[in-house]
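Q: Please design a sequence for this.
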């Protein structure tokens, strides 16, 4: 059951889709067809044929109304379109100028390393770090050896966090000098505590110093929260709710841009660039979304299979969560296609297909050829053909771009997922519970689409792929990094939808298994236990991030981390606000520009 599997069906409990559908209709009325969007890096090639590493397009989508019959109206709209294009060109030139200016400023900060670190932190939180990757990387390499016994806790913790976030291995021993002889951490001001708290969330398994730091700072900040000044209270409150390391990139960028604009003494050039960039990336996302909707309509699956979920917007939200960097345009589009297909497959196994039909379909998927399709019912043939063609198209794209044959890997991960669906169909179709918690979760990672998404992106991104690390995907179990990210997704899913599933009589949840195997009595105990497990899994992923001997490319490690971040955004909700929250995220990221 994919990352959206517990979201409501189109024909039941569908209030999640109401705003999104209206936004989608508004978007389709106002956007230029995908084929008209052009990126300078690819001359006059349509954007949908870009390579994986496409940068921001030079031509942003127009928001002018569509041309209708009538000469005067046509001329008027042509003028509006030209005016929009002129404004877009000015905006892009201004962005490029600001990038140059800020890069110079960043390189000139040499007097106080804390100022350099704070500026890097601001740039990354504003969502514009990808413009300065080389500059930031060179600065951080120098910062690796810049720890000093003279600097304060705030600076040490900030440097530690930024270096680990970038994948550098830094020992937590740098915090030993902030401890008393008794072994306890020394008291500090709120900014120092906050900085140490954020750093402690970068901890890996077995790092007791950081475990102690998290416990110490968390208790101190909670105790003093009501006594803090309003702006500091807000910062601390947000950190205690979700640490920076665990926040979804595009949502954090939007939130921090608004926060940064209210800070006294903020850098006006930095704020202007962040605002321009946010809107331009949003325009790029609209173009990508137009291509996904075009593909989905041409595919016609939902028209032919009325039971299938029609959710291109929510699928695309996930892809933006996993891949916030603008250069991954093609990856987002292709991944959204796989998610949309997965939702239909999930509906077949979950609600529509009969057991004998599901067995036939599973056998056909294992055979991996068109001959296997002949024995299937008509509705399954349509879905099988859509999956067959889409997977082959993605395999061809990777072969064309990288020269690597990946179709066997892609097909294998689909087989794993379909077999997982079959296992769940036997469990829950028969009204029985899974044998144990571990078996449920591991199978649930596969049916959540985690392995499928990460394997596809491993090859679509293509950075750092070798025969050695690719071979890790052809054997089971999947890499620990993939498993940890997928388990976090599955646990957040179960935690966020437990009550809804129970009311529906759905047994597909880890909640009752936690209660049974861990001897838990209350809902609060279950929640606490699952959250502890999620934090432990974060340690596993952090360990992969900072490992000196990384088996996986840094790019796919970041994708796995982003999967965990996006899972929390989608499924962590209080007071039954889940549906409106997801709608708000869609509206903010795709349809509402910043002023």
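A: Design:
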């Amino acid at each position: 059951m994919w990352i959206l599997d517990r979201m409501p069906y189109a024909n039941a409990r569908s209030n999640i889709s109401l705003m999104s559908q209206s936004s989608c209709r508004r978007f389709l009325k106002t956007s230029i067809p995908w084929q008209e969007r052009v990126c300078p890096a690819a001359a006059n090639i349509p954007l949908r044929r870009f390579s994986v590493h496409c940068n921001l397009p030079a031509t942003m989508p127009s928001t002018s109304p569509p041309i209708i019959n009538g000469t005067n109206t046509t001329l008027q709209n042509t003028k509006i379109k030209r005016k929009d294009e002129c404004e877009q060109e000015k905006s892009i030139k201004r962005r490029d100028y600001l990038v140059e200016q800020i890069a110079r400023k960043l390189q000139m900060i040499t007097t106080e390393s804390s100022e350099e670190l704070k500026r890097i932190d601001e740039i990354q939180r504003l969502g514009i770090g990808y413009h300065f990757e080389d500059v930031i990387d060179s600065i951080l390499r120098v910062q690796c050896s810049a720890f000093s016994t003279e600097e304060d806790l705030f600076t040490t913790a900030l440097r530690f966090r930024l270096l680990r976030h970038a994948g550098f291995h830094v020992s937590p021993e740098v915090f030993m000098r902030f401890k008393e002889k008794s072994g306890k951490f020394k008291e500090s001001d709120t900014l120092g505590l906050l900085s140490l708290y954020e750093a402690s969330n970068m901890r890996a398994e077995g790092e007791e110093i950081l475990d102690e730091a998290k416990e110490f700072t968390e208790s101190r900040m909670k105790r003093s929260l009501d006594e803090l000044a309003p702006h500091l209270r807000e910062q601390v409150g947000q950190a205690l709710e979700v640490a920076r390391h665990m926040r979804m990139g595009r949502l954090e960028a939007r939130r921090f841009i608004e926060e940064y604009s209210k800070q006294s003494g903020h850098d006006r050039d930095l704020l202007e660039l962040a605002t321009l960039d946010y809107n331009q990336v949003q325009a790029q996302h609209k173009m990508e979304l137009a291509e996904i909707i075009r593909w989905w309509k041409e595919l016609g699956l939902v028209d032919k299979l009325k039971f299938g979920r029609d959710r291109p917007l929510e699928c695309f939200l996930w892809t933006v969560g996993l891949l916030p960097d603008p250069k991954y345009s093609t990856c987002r589009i292709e991944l959204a296609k796989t998610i949309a297909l997965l939702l239909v497959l999930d509906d077949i196994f979950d609600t529509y297909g009969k057991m004998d039909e599901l067995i036939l379909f599973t056998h056909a998927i294992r055979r991996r050829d068109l001959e296997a399709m002949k024995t299937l019912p008509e509705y399954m043939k349509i879905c099988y053909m859509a999956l067959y063609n889409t997977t082959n198209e993605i395999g061809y794209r990777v072969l064309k771009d990288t020269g690597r044959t990946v179709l066997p890997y892609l097909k294998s991960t689909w087989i794993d997922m379909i077999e997982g669906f079959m296992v769940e169909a036997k469990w829950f179709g028969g009204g029985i519970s899974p044998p144990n918690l571990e078996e449920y979760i591991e199978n649930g990672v596969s049916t959540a689409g985690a392995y499928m998404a990460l394997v596809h992106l491993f090859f679509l991104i293509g950075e750092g792929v070798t025969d050695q690390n690719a071979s890790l995907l052809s054997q089971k179990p999947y890499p620990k990094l993939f498993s940890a990210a997928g388990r976090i997704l599955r646990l957040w899913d179960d935690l966020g939808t437990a009550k809804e599933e129970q009311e529906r009589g759905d047994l597909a949840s880890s909640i009752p298994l936690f209660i049974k195997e861990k001897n838990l009595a209350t809902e609060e105990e279950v929640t606490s236990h699952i959250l502890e497990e999620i934090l432990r899994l974060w340690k596993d992923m952090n360990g992969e991030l900072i490992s000196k001997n990384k088996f996986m490319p840094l790019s796919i490690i970041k994708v796995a981390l982003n999967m965990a971040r996006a899972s929390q955004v989608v499924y962590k909700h209080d007071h039954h606000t889940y549906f409106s929250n997801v709608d708000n995220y869609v509206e903010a990221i795709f349809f509402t520009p910043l002023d």
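Q: Thanks. Anything notable?
A: DSSP finds 24 helices and no strands in the chain. Confidence is low (pLDDT under 50) at residues 1-68, 575-580.
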